[in-house]
Here is the input.
Amino acid sequence: MSKQRQQRKQEEIRKTILDTARTIIARDGVDGLSIRKLTHAMDYSPAIVYHYFKDKNEIILSLVNEGYGKILAAIAAESRAGEHGKDIAGVHPEHNSTGDYAKQHTGDLAEHHTRDHTEYHTGQQAEHHTRDQAEHHTGDQPGVRAGVDSAVNPPDDPKQQITGRFSAYIRAALSFPDEYKAFMLHDDPSILARTSLLEHGISNRSETMRLLRDTIESGVAQGQFAPCDAELTAQVLWAAVFGLTMKLIMEKNVEAEQTERLVERQLSLLMRGLGGEA
Here is the structure.
């Protein structure tokens, strides 16, 4: 077997392990994953799994890192769409549920994420895709109105940057709801090291929070937002969006049109609050 074929085979086995683990976690939760259950589902020996991963925790962290990569990809693509003045709205098809909404709004965009964004946040190696690939998929995706606004307004408009990025965040989370819920609601220290965003100084180590903090500071400097502690405000904004995202995941059958209305209304209220409006 050539070295190239052997490498492809190894990548396929590693992907099979992660895909199977993802399925088990979606069904049984993070605590329900075990090497025994994993090998039984794949009909592999434990030795094969241990050849690719040190232990169960390494598998879990690989999935957490992958999930963050998907979200960062959506946010990065949203930002690039705004920079190039692209209309990512497209034509809204008929949607029947939250799941349909997420699929139509994100497609396979989440699979195209840049290595530098993902490594900054997770400290792990991530699959690299080119900027052109991500932009191609972004240009084809429908978006909630807040995301559309960010694409057609000047890229230096802090309000549109924030609403566009949060719209992208929600769409990405809804595209893999079971994983998102399993990891974001888990209190294992190794998972919290990747998912925690409320500690003081978090914007110094989280790319996501740094970007949001800097955008808020830009809005204050431009007179769009009332003076505030930018990091603290970013954390409160994220917590509010997280709450809505989690409720949309828990209430699985919320119609797509209602999902869009809820997202738009929440972001509108948050932006009014940032501006100091009553």
